[in-house]
Amino acid sequence: MPIQINKGVIGKESPPFVVTVERGKIKEFARAIGDDNPLYLDDQVGRASEWGDIIAPPTFMTTFRDGADSGAFLKELGTDISRILHGEQEFELFRPIRPGETFVCRSKVLDVYEKTGRSGPMAFVQRETSVVDSTNEVVAFIRHITVVRL
Amino acid sequence: MKYSRVYFDDVKVGDELPAVVKGPIQQIQLTRYAGASGDFNPIHQDDEFARAAGMGGVFAHGMLSMGFVGQVVTDWAGPATVRKLAVRFAAIVRLKDVITCKGRVLDKSSKDDVHLVGLEIWAENQRGEKVVTGKATVALPSRS
Q1: Where are the domains of chain A?
Q2: What is the structure's pLDDT at B126?
Q3: B32 domain residue, yes or no
Q4: Are strands B82-89 and B16-22 parallel, antiparallel or unpaired?
């Protein structure tokens, strides 16, 4: 018996959340991927670079999470974490980000649609998060598609 | 060649980027990535949970593989050049898999002193199956 996905979430915006980029978190993330680029890991190399500090890897913004949100969102969608897979992910980046910067993130649900694939019926939940800096400039859009096995 | 500066003028459509090889994937790396990324879905940590969820055992975070293919781009052109990184997760990465990440130049364009190079990027496992497919855009300096 397949589960029902709540399409009422389409267009829904989550409350904005604020993140501050931590130096240690950038390094921890780079090491977890196994990427030893000195522009992520070496403060001296960062200081000598045109950015004046270390910068974050291009997928680092996946760490920008609204702690309270994910379980509640899946519940509202009508599913739980055991049924979800990551379908697609995109980062559109307008500039590198550095330790100490604070950003406001706003997420919304762009679309929810269903398709039947090789492994049965699935729902696709398409979301976009804008990342805005303290001068109100957009530094990135994060887009992702979550797949729910129905 | 790693971390050398790449100029827009020197790039040709069809050029291949140096491959990045990762793995064999170990559970400890998935645990480490969970901590670093904040994605604590037990499907990547707890084999019993993953089996009960019908996934046949734990598998790697898609975002870990995206980090791997991102490194193909950043090793080649530098981390600050990346304007877009977009992937589809085509197949699941299991423990012990060896992931080879590759890239190729698709197109070049210049507008208002911004020089963009479009790349095809992908990752394949030890059986040659694509696990990640995608595209990237980098903005490169020009010699002129």
Answers
A1: 7-22+65-149
A2: 98
A3: no
A4: unpaired
Domain hosting B67: range is 8-25+60-139
Q: Which residues of A touch B82 (CB under 8 A)?
A: 58, 91, 93
For the A7-22+65-149 domain, the top CATH level (class) is alpha beta
Which residue in this structure is represented by tokens 């140096």? B18
- Where residue B77 sits, what CATH number does that domain have? 3.10.129.10
What is the value of ipTM here, to two decimals?
0.96
Q: How many CB atoms sit inside 10 A of residue B43's CB?
A: 22
Dump pLDDT digits (tens) for B80-139.
999 999 999 999 999 999 999 999 999 999 999 999 999 999 999 999 999 999 999 999
Determine, yes or no, domain membership for B102: yes
Count of structural domains, chain B: 1
Per the DSSP assignment, residues forming a β-bridge with A149 are: A122
CB proximity under 8 Å: A 61-90 to B: 62-63, 65, 81-90
The residues, any chain, with a CB within 8 Å of residue B119's CB and separated by 6 or more, are: B17, B73, B103, B104, B105, B106, B135, B136, B137, B138
Contact B38 A63 (CB under 8 A): yes
Positive or negative: CA dihedral A25, A31, A33, A37: positive
